[in-house]
Amino acid sequence: MTRERWREIRALIERDIMDGVLEPGARLPTEPELATQYEAGRHTIRRAIAELAKEGHLSVEQGRGTFVQPRPMIDYPIGRRTRLRRNLGAQGIDVTSEPFGADRIPAEGRVARMLNLSEGSPVIASRRLSHADGVPVSFGTLYHDAERFPDIAERRIGLGSVSAVYRSYGIEDYLRGQTQIHARPARSEEARRLRQHPDMPVLVVRALDRELDGTPLAYGQVIWSAARVRFSINIDDEDAG
Amino acid sequence: MTRERWREIRALIERDIMDGVLEPGARLPTEPELATQYEAGRHTIRRAIAELAKEGHLSVEQGRGTFVQPRPMIDYPIGRRTRLRRNLGAQGIDVTSEPFGADRIPAEGRVARMLNLSEGSPVIASRRLSHADGVPVSFGTLYHDAERFPDIAERRIGLGSVSAVYRSYGIEDYLRGQTQIHARPARSEEARRLRQHPDMPVLVVRALDRELDGTPLAYGQVIWSAARVRFSINIDDEDAG
DNA sequence: ATCGATTTGTTCGTATGTATA
DNA sequence: GTATACATACGAACAAATCGA
């Protein structure tokens, strides 16, 4: 029995992807076909494919096949003024987003602390999924004080960007306060939403937006596809671009 | 036969960890034992264990066993003044680091551009592995202009922190310029260095340090364990703490 | 220092369920 | 409905790493 045959196969397939023998979007031969081609068992093939899928090179779809996946990386600047549309638009990326639910819930723990509200005060949690050039890149929840922004969920549906919603409340400018970033494996439901393989990690970004005088505006948690996004922190730049 | 039994088993083990039935550091029963206990095949058990290991709850060691892993999260602030020791020391974390190699190589591509050197100019690449409270948390490479800092590798061995090395060159202060963050699955060698499971992701941080007048000092790429670190970006704070 | 027992890692074979076209 | 292709599952054997006698 050979030693770590799945690694050899993994490397062979990866080489074919890198060399362009397997073009982005192309379908791999079926697992039994690969098994005979590489003179290995189907388990071994699956292990190699799983590894490549985890790294974002392949996307495995039950009942359809296994496909070579292109991996565009977008660069998302984080700074004093962090604006999704303006920042990505400058890179020639078309950003769209769709709401998928909003709730009026009592603020608890971190949300209450960050928004400077007492535990249990009502907040509006509005959820959105964002696409860049048609591919899902992130989804997340934004929490607002329900007393100050009672109808924010409705306004977010009508108006495109967060900035536009704030302008409708008379807030012309706001700044990004604290931002926290960490990474972890994706839950299966998150992977499904982002249309990425379950083994690909996600980046979790928690952030607080403030008015110019320091008043907390919104606290949010956004899950980003680690395969599709990279963050840039430009501390000096006024516009974070 | 096929009702995703491995997910059930995964959930059962995870519950035992969360409830404290399995304490941090405890060894799980062997795979064959778990197989009989849960009335499943060994493959199914392994699938459940692999998932939990990927999420950082378990650490699997060939020839020894499978252990419940505690997951301390350290908070690493990124700001104008980003200093490993001072920032983590303030959290009561003991930071140590050891060099593991240095080379004099020609600058290429990104390194040359960031350091404002012409392609092929000699740079010193010095590599270090850092521990927080004895656990490896990151390793990476720092690139310096070889003309300006010819013996930086030697000085980094003698002196503890990066700041101390710069002071020995007469540089009293420096600022963090651009920082880029992204996440990806760990290569097996990286996982070994960080003593984390191969399926746990890593965070990749690329950063440029500048002198107060803007002159590039060093460009670095550091791989952080996603299981053990979280980044905080405090844009307003002068000391990023 | 060596051997053997223990435990996880890899591989094969085979069968059956589930999703897609 | 049928065929195709991936997902899950069981069993068995051997390899590799670890540890203690």
UniProtKB/TrEMBL annotation, chains A, B:
Name of the protein this chain belongs to: Phosphonates metabolism transcriptional regulator PhnF
SUPFAM superfamilies noted in UniProt: Chorismate lyase-like, Winged helix' DNA-binding domain
Organism: Pseudooceanicola atlanticus
Pfam families for the chain: GntR, UTRA
NCBIfam families: C_P_lyase_phnF
A molecular-function term among this protein's GO annotations: DNA-binding transcription factor activity
Residues in HTH gntR-type domain copies: 3-71
SMART domains, per the entry: HTH_GNTR, UTRA
